[in-house]
Amino acid sequence: MLFGTRPPCVRRRLHADRITSQPLRARSRSLCYTPRIATPQSQVVNCAAYAGGRKVGDVALDDISEVLKIEGQFVWIGLHEPSDELLRKIQQEFGLHDLAVEDAHNAHQRPKLEEYGDSLFVVLRTARLAESGPEFGETHAFVGPRYVVTVRHGPSLTYADVRARCESTPHLLAKGSGFVLYAIMDFIVDQYFPIVDDFEERLEALEEEIFDGRFDRGTTSRIYELKRQLVTLKRAVSPLIDICNRLVRFDMAIIPESARPYFRDIYDHVVRINESIDNLRELLTTALEANLSLVSVQQNEVTKKLAAWAAILAVPTAIAGIYGMNFEHMPELGWQYGYAVIMVAIVVTCGTLYWRFRRAGWL
Question: How confident is the model at residue 15 (pLDDT cuts 50, 70, 90)?
Answer without folding.
Answer: very low
